[in-house]
Amino acid sequence: MSAPVRENPVNKYLRTERMPSIWCPGCGIGTTVNCFARALDELQESGFSLDKLAVVSGIGCTGRVAGYMKVDSFHTTHGRAIPFATGLQLANPELKVVVYSGDGDLSAIGGNHLIHAARRNANLLVVCVNNFTYGMTGGQVTPTTFKPAIASTTPYGAFEQTFNQPDLVASAGGVFVARWTAYHVRQIAKTMGEALNKKGFRFIEILAPCPTLYLRRNKLGEGLDEMKYYQEKSVIRNGASTKDVGLDYRKELVVGKFVDIERQPLEEAMEARMREVLGSKFVPYTTPVAKV
Amino acid sequence: MSNANSSGVLTGSHYLDGDHACSEGAIAAGCRFAAGYPITPSTEVVERISQRFPHVGGRFLQFEDELAASIALLGGAWGGAKALTVTSGPGFSLMMEHIGYAAITETPCVYINVQRAGPSTGLPTQPAQGDMMQARFGSHGDYRLIALCPNSPQECFDLTVEAFNLSEEYRVPVLVMLDEVVGHMTEKVVIPEAKDIKVTERKWTAKKPGEYKPFDANGGLVPEMVKAGDGYCIHVTGLTHDDRGYPAMTVPAHEKMQLRLRDKLLNNVDQIVRWEEKDLEGAEVVVVSYGITSRVAEKAIQQAKAKGVKVGSFRIITAWPFPEKQIAALASKVKAFVVPELNLGQMSLEVERVVNGRCKTVPVHHVGGTVHTPESITAKILEAVR
For tag attachment on chain A, is the N or C end more exposed, with fewer CB atoms within 10 Å? Predict the structure, then answer.
């Protein structure tokens, strides 16, 4: 018999001194962070130093992820995690930069940055925890709230078309696009690991319960009920066309890895162009060394 | 202080406009990351940077909007680079949130604003000085920064170098506040040899990971810095934070953070404030001006002198922090300050506040779109001396 595990194996990736987290019981964000920590475990086994990982978040419940990860982490402004991360990565290309934020932050206020970063193939992994609502401000409608779900600002039910986020990112040029639910913990960790080892603009959407606001207001039960729903209604279709993975209220949930292609990432495209035109006159960028 | 990296410095005499001189100043100061979005009359700064950077090891990216550009440079700064963005009018309004973020996260960075007449789209290719109060108070909340006002292409070069130096010294956003005329006027610019350009490097910590706290100023006012990727496991947030950078949602934490952010500039104001004075000895009237308006005011001062008035000149170089002590000292010696500016009263309000009734403050308003006529300023000087 092996010795009992004395500490949660994900603890070494967390700023445990900041626990407990702000997240409600039954919230799915922490589950995804647990998966992320497990993916980092695997990454370290392949020799990657966590010193070279940076996590960047925007604002909102998922926006707090950066602050709990025990790596270089940046809690930026609402919607702007992606351009901050783009600047960070271009100025320090040794870094693996992960943007970790919510659906409202990434697809509403930050929507323009999401599509442009995908278009230019910025070298970022974006993890979008989609709980269909603005949690931190009290449960308002987002671009992913299904018709006719109730939100605090759609008291008579949502009436707008939602974003099909995987399709949005794939159409804009993302090279890796996947979706799971908070129920699919092993798949999330595996997909995160795969995405961490790839270059270019990678996007993972994770559907997650918000029991306090979205579920309660729509009389959908507790976090556990939502996990059962994810279990029952999820259909894994790896390689599905993102055109066919749109979601609807309480309907089937298409999950899996939809896109995994190769395209020159932003910084390589930038440098290749300069080299081609300027030849030996081109002076490549080097990150400044912190000399005292 | 060290010397500029000679590989980037275009030593020699040039015929440059103010915008291009800013680009060269940035390169000389060691800026190697820039983010931009086109907007007249500031675009020439990033046009030149986009052409020059690949020759000097810099990275420039044009972003999708000013919201992106104004935070991408902060990402660049935490990645280790000296970083810049440039804008005008509406773009400056869009950048305000991130100037506040730079202030609270103490990120060294430079924002260049080539002012045009507003509000809103206003007069896109014509000059104004209407963003001076926005420069000071534009982002929400209470914070301080440094704003410099060049009045020639030469000064665009010199003060852009200075802007980077000050931003590294105090870990604050520094604004370079041109106006359209200074940005587009072409004059001789002498770029010194690299060894004669003083450059302030980032204040990297000598501490080891574990000992280092990113927002602990160690009894001083400006904390040492690290960059991402060096094992320090830093956390940076726009929330009120403690010395570790961790969110701290308490009044004492907010007070501690805010007072240090204030004091790092307030207590160093004598090292920061820059101005230029002429003929103050025995002056009855002092013209207080900045940017292009100071060039027009020179002619007005000559005209008034020809009529026998004793006129001096006080040119504001740091609009923020305002040269308060210097103006206050003059207030009890002169009859009046005459303050021409291309707005309907901004820095003149600051002069009035500092003067506090000890002499007259006579603003010379102009809505912008063009510059003052010297005569309009001369008339106010003559009126003020009566």
Answer: N
Cα–Cα distance, B67 to B60 (Å, whole number): 16
Residues of B in contact with A79 (CB under 8 A): 67
Helix (H) or strand (E) holding A112: helix A111-119
Residue B305 belongs to a domain: yes
State how beta strands A53-57 and A72-75 pair: parallel
Residue A162 inside a domain? The answer is: yes
pLDDT of A162-194, one tens digit each?
999 999 999 999 999 999 999 999 999 999 999
* B282 in the same domain as B186: no
CA dihedral B13, B15, B18, B20 (to 10 degrees): -80
Q: What is the phi/psi pair of residue B154, to 5°?
A: -55, -45
H helices of chain B, where? 18-29, 43-56, 66-78, 89-105, 132-137, 153-170, 180-184, 251-266, 269-272, 292-306, 324-331, 347-355, 374-385
Dihedral of the CA atoms A83, A113, B174, A72 (nearest 10)? -20
Residue A4 lies in a domain: no
Does B186 share its domain with B293? no
Q: Does B142 touch chain A (CB under 8 A)?
A: no
Q: What is the largest CA-CA distance in chain A?
A: 65
Q: What is the pLDDT along chain B (386 residues), one digit of tens a residue?
A: 788 888 899 999 999 999 999 999 999 999 999 999 999 999 999 999 999 999 999 999 999 999 999 999 999 999 999 999 999 999 999 999 999 999 999 999 999 999 999 999 999 989 999 999 999 999 999 999 999 999 999 999 999 999 999 999 999 999 999 999 999 999 999 999 999 999 999 999 999 999 999 999 999 999 999 999 999 999 999 999 999 999 999 999 999 999 999 999 999 999 999 999 999 999 999 999 999 999 999 999 999 999 999 999 999 999 999 999 999 999 999 999 999 999 999 999 999 999 999 999 999 999 999 999 999 999 999 999 98
Spatial distance between the Cα atoms of A253 and A219, rounded to a whole number of angstroms:
19
CATH number at residue A56: 3.40.50.970
Residue B314: strand pairing partners: B277, B288
**Domains contained in chain A, number:** 1
- Using a CB–CB cutoff of 8 Å, tell me whether B227 touches chain A: yes
CATH of the domain at B310: 3.40.50.920
Domain interval for residue B320: 275-385
Is A108 within the bounds of a domain? yes
Give the number of domains in chain B. Answer: 2
Domain boundary at B157, B179, B199, which?
B199
Please state the pTM of the whole predicted model. 0.98
Residue of chain B minimizing CA distance to A13: B233
A contacts of B202 (beta carbons < 8 Å): 288, 290
Q: Is A252:A240 a contact under the CB 8 Å cutoff?
A: no
Would B81 be classed as within a structural domain? Answer: yes
Residue B53 amino acid letter: F
Sign of the Cα torsion A178, A182, A187, A188 reads: positive
Asked if B61 is an interface residue toward chain A (Cβ–Cβ < 8 A), one would say yes
The parent domain of residue A243 ranges over: 11-262
Q: Are residues B161 and B300 located together in one domain of the fold? A: no
ipTM entry: 0.98
Cβ-defined contact of A75 to B236 (cutoff 8 Å): yes
